[in-house]
């Protein structure tokens, strides 16, 4: 007859629960797995399957009761690590969407907005189009598999532990978040530059022929030039977007490394004794 103690049951539950928390947090925050169109049952089933595969191979979990306060703190810590790793990839898609927003506003398509199920908000048509292109590129370079590989490596770089993580991980997350604005502006720069030249030409034309209705001809010209430039620039966006994906994967790997730099508190030095 097989008998199990409560300690063994707690150890088995903890060995599966804490890796599952990190995996589910990454699935919920990553741009592809966490899409609203994916059913919640599919996400949970994928997380449980990955946890069952990874749990026997990762370092052993600490001997802490998962129902204690220490176990709850470990659970929260694992959730934060998974959310940060998924959010690092989500920033790349946010940069592409920002490029589409800037391009649509410059073209005059700011009114053409649709409901975005991913962000639960409204985004422009150009932004959603570039986001779909980025999603196809992410799948084409096997970015989803590389992200899962980075997740598996994180259990060895930053094992499940009761020791609090370092403050370096939030700093790396904030530093990487600035990439939204720089990368978004760089991706939209060709469209913005072409439309700026178009607007300058329309301004010169208006001064040369004041009888022209600039409001009647300016909008279709700007819209046509914007769509033409997007069609020209689109084949050349593969390289920059792939570079952003590589940087996002490296950022997701760097976050556990920064969090793993746990330093022991140092005691203040005692004053020297008087001679």
Automatic annotation (TrEMBL):
Presence of the UniProt keyword Cell membrane in the record: yes
InterPro entries membership: FliR (IPR006303), T3SS_IM_R (IPR002010)
Origin: domain of life: Bacteria
UniProt subcellular location: Cell membrane; Bacterial flagellum basal body
Transmembrane segments: 12-32, 44-61, 67-89, 127-148, 180-202, 214-237
Main localization of the protein described in the UniProt heading: membrane
Membrane topology of this protein: Multi-pass membrane protein
Keywords tagged on the record: Bacterial flagellum, Cell membrane, Cell projection, Cilium, Flagellum, Membrane, Transmembrane, Transmembrane helix
Similarity comment: Belongs to the FliR/MopE/SpaR family.
Cited function: Role in flagellar biosynthesis.
Xref: NCBIfam families: fliR (TIGR01400)
Record PANTHER family: FLAGELLAR BIOSYNTHETIC PROTEIN FLIR
Protein name: Flagellar biosynthetic protein FliR
GN (gene name): fliR
């Amino acid at each position: 007859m097989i008998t199990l103690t409560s300690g063994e049951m707690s150890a088995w539950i903890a060995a599966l629960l804490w890796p599952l928390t990190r995996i589910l947090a990454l699935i919920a925050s990553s741009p592809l797995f966490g899409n609203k169109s994916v059913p919640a049952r599919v996400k949970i089933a994928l997380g449980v399957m990955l946890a069952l595969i990874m749990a026997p191979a990762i370092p052993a979990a600490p001997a802490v009761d998962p129902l204690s306060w220490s176990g709850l703190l470990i659970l929260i810590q694992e959730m934060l690590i998974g959310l940060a790793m998924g959010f690092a990839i989500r920033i790349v898609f946010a940069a592409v969407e920002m490029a589409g927003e800037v391009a649509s506003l410059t073209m005059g398509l700011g009114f053409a907005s649709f409901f975005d199920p991913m962000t639960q908000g409204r985004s422009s048509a150009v932004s959603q189009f570039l986001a779909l292109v980025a999603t196809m590129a992410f799948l084409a370079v096997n970015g989803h598999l590389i992200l899962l590989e980075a997740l598996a490596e994180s259990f060895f770089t930053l094992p499940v532990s009761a020791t609090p993580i370092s403050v370096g991980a939030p700093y790396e997350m904030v530093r990487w978040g600035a990439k939204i604005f720089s990368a978004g502006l760089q991706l939209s720069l060709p469209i913005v530059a072409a439309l700026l030249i178009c607007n300058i030409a329309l301004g010169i034309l208006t001064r040369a022929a004041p009888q022209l209705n600039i409001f009647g001809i300016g909008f279709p010209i700007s819209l046509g030039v914007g769509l033409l430039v997007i069609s020209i620039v689109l084949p050349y966006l593969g390289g920059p977007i792939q570079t952003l994906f590589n940087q996002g994967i490296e950022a997701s790997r760097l976050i556990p490394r920064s969090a793993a730099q746990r330093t022991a508190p140092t005691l203040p030095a005692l004053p020297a004794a008087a001679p």
